[in-house]
């Protein structure tokens, strides 16, 4: 079978890497892919939002399964289009992907179906938003309603910071149409975890637990990014928390979406805030997290392709997933300036040396090729991902890989996985 993966980042490199291992798969294509992906699959120069181009390629090439990585093509209705032409495709349909494409819609679903979340209100005008900020007080969270590449959330520590974020989003056009509405919600205390599950709209199979690191600097300081690293398993997700997440978050959301006439098929990502025995939902994503996907797929023992096919066929019953006992850690290496304006074109050295390290893989996220060398071509450039018998072992191996790789101005967090050590 031929498989087409759509996307160009570290998440898609991980998906291609895992899918290519399946005995069911003869060839993997990736559109548009990146140079790292091009080492294990054939890149196809079609943009993720070129739906007619992707459809034409899939039909012409006889693709047996298409796997959608990023949120944009899901929100544009790529899955609906492929299904209309009888093509097998893994991902949420457009009306279900709205759970990520609109934070206001996600909050409405949570409120209606009793999914625990923070108190909130939605605004399109500055002055009422400021009045709500004054009523709730700081710290407080301001979110652009639409898709903002993981960066449309401001955790404001002061009133002035919150007001500035509202003005920037609603008046300053910081996120374009994505910021034409804002969701303002109470600040939740606790520790974040990423909870992902496969679902066919009825059956739900949880993935292993994981934790992302959104802030750019060590100690969770600085502005939010698309994610500076992740690890799995996450000890903060105890058996009791896991049960709560499945019953109160995943089950209620999947059933609620079905009741709304928006059956959810694909992978559903819930960002959770855990405080003692309490679980509240920060957000939903309609796809694999990036970088959570990288350590999760490193730990997945089962062939992923039968799972993806079962969801594309609408029936997960009878499917199970095995996981390696080992831990996995992904450290994101970023370009200078990220998550603000960042530089491109710096030559990356040390990739061959990193490739010699056992149980480690370097996933490309934002790279290009120039004169036979890999160069930086994005904010998040590489995801250095390693397995270890323990979380500490995985941390040590991942940072061994990071130490081997360099370019001018590279930056990364030095504390990925440390929260797990505190709980082990």
From TrEMBL:
Keywords: ATP-binding, Ligase, Nucleotide-binding, Purine biosynthesis
Enzymatic class: ligase
InterPro entries: ATP-grasp (IPR011761), ATP_grasp_subdomain_1 (IPR013815), PreATP-grasp_dom_sf (IPR016185), PRibGlycinamid_synth_ATP-grasp (IPR020561), PRibGlycinamide_synth (IPR000115), PRibGlycinamide_synth_C-dom (IPR020560), PRibGlycinamide_synth_C_sf (IPR037123), PRibGlycinamide_synth_CS (IPR020559)
GO molecular function annotation: ATP binding; metal ion binding; phosphoribosylamine-glycine ligase activity
Catalysis: reaction(s): 5-phospho-beta-D-ribosylamine + glycine + ATP = N(1)-(5-phospho-beta-D-ribosyl)glycinamide + ADP + phosphate + H(+)
Ranges where the ATP-grasp domain occurs: 107-313
Coiled coil start-end: none
One GO process term, biological-process aspect: purine nucleobase biosynthetic process
EC number annotated for this UniProt entry: 6.3.4.13
Pathways per UniProt: Purine metabolism; IMP biosynthesis via de novo pathway; N(1)-(5-phospho-D-ribosyl)glycinamide from 5-phospho-alpha-D-ribose 1-diphosphate: step 2/2
Cofactor: Mg(2+); Mn(2+)
Domain of life: Bacteria
Xref: SUPFAM superfamilies: Glutathione synthetase ATP-binding domain-like (SSF56059), PreATP-grasp domain (SSF52440), Rudiment single hybrid motif (SSF51246)
NCBIfam families: purD (TIGR00877)
Family: Belongs to the GARS family.
Protein name: Phosphoribosylamine--glycine ligase
UniProt organism field: Geobacter argillaceus
Encoding gene (name): purD
